[in-house]
Amino acid sequence: MTPLGLYEPGTSLLHRAPTGPSLLAVLLIAAGTVLTSDPWVLAGVCGLVALGYVVARVPWRRLRPLLRTLALLLVLIGLVQWWLLGPERALVIALRLVAAIGAASLFTLTTRVDDLVSAVERGLGPLRRFGVRPERVGLLVGLTIQSVGTLSGIAGQVRASAKARGAGGSVTAFAVPFMIRTLRHADALGEALAARGWGDDDTRPSPPHVAEP
Amino acid sequence: MIEFSGVGHRYGDRVVLDGVDLTLPQSRVALIGANGSGKSTLARTVNGLVTPTEGTVRVDGRDPARQGSAVRRRVGFVFSDPDSQIVMPTAGEDVAFSLRRTVRNRAERARLAAETLTGFGLGDHIEHPAHQLSGGQKQLLALCAVLVLDPDVLVCDEPTTLLDLRNKKAFAERLAGLRQQVLLATHDLDLLEGFDRVIVLDGGRVVADDEPEPAVAHYRKLCT
């Protein structure tokens, strides 16, 4: 399971919140956690994010894998930081991670990627005059979120294959096929996007049609 | 109508297509042949995914190499692995994504996507994570993502390779009911039922061009 959750349908306040301000809030939380080193402030932000999960009524089945991933990350990074910088610094970094990942995950659980892409496109619209292509940036954001799940799926399959061949602990048996499959996927995705017209310059709207099966 | 005039293609020294001349006005046309025979490459030239190194391709008079954008609006493409075609996390969002460049209104995109998915029996899966659908449902989703744009031509490259018998049958039934001209590159000879014309490729050349039964007989002979 990935730290970034897929959308969980719902009708809570956070589900209904406009996407642009929600995204801004996540960015502010992420930036804010870097700017402060006060563990009490960071703990407060973590508490606020946790409250967000309660308000969004995120089901336990979605919460459990997120907590597991976070715990694993915290143990690994926390131990290294503790060893390198001491307990206080390790605590601050751990709280920063919890707040930032927790807020990002809450956002993806309560926001459709389609809405996010539209919000990014709208937000970057004024930059069009400077050569920015908002629809391309929006697509990039959507694909980035989607790729987290895809790469996680590929990693799981490669790990299972390595295990089946008795090479469960081998870094090479994991890294080489993972890299090859990831590149192949990127290639195929690029081809699929090109086939759907993403790469063509012409974006003139044309009347929509409805296909009949 | 799809026309190939002296179409050839090379990857370095390797010739994958060699002097293909075809005019395809029929509604259902299939390309069959062994692995590496050139059928996928030929199919990819139709919407400009591959630009032939020799000759020209025309779709309703337009050249995909020069008028790619215009051709891609008329030609939909379904690949063998639906996982590589799914761009958005949920089925509804993925189909709506196809409309992003042509329909500005988000609610309208969602409505059209839901309508198309429902038409293909995926109405209950609109909010469902796309990658968690079954193989057959994913391929139907890929088909929906293409058909929501109502293209005139549908090119399918080995669309049933990853499907079981039941899903393969369901996919073939959906394909048969479409109004679009279908160009199907396939190994799956069961799919050819009801097709108007079957072209057999071998070593990048057309070696047979007939109705399904004689064309398949020719292909079987090639394989023995």
From TrEMBL, chain A:
Family matches, as Pfam families: CbiQ
Keyword annotations of the record: Membrane, Transmembrane, Transmembrane helix
Protein topology in the membrane: Multi-pass membrane protein
Record flagged with keyword Ribosomal protein: no
Signal sequence, renumbered to the chain: none
Cellular-component GO terms for this entry: plasma membrane
Locations listed in the record: Membrane
Stretches that traverse the bilayer: 23-54, 66-84, 90-109
Alphabetical list of InterPro entries matching this protein: ABC/ECF_trnsptr_transmembrane (IPR003339)
Protein name: Biotin transport system permease protein
Organism in which the protein naturally occurs: Pseudonocardia ammonioxydans
Lineage: Bacteria, Bacillati, Actinomycetota, Actinomycetes, Pseudonocardiales
TrEMBL record, chain B:
Alphabetized PROSITE patterns for the sequence: ABC_TRANSPORTER_1 (PS00211), ABC_TRANSPORTER_2 (PS50893)
Any one GO molecular-function label of the UniProt entry: ATPase-coupled transmembrane transporter activity
SUPFAM superfamilies to which the protein is assigned, alphabetical: P-loop containing nucleoside triphosphate hydrolases (SSF52540)
Statement: the UniProt record of this protein carries the keyword Isomerase: no
Keyword ATP-binding: yes
Domain ABC transporter positions: 2-224
CDD domains, A to Z: ABC_cobalt_CbiO_domain1
Classification via InterPro entries: AAA+_ATPase, ABC_transporter-like_ATP-bd, ABC_transporter-like_CS, ABC_transpr_CbiO/EcfA_su, ECF_ABC_transporter_ATP-bd, P-loop_NTPase
One of the record's GO cellular component terms: ATP-binding cassette (ABC) transporter complex
Any single Pfam family the record assigns to this protein: ABC_tran
Keywords recorded for this protein, A-Z: ATP-binding, Nucleotide-binding, Transport
Family statement: Belongs to the ABC transporter superfamily.
Name of this protein: Biotin transport system ATP-binding protein
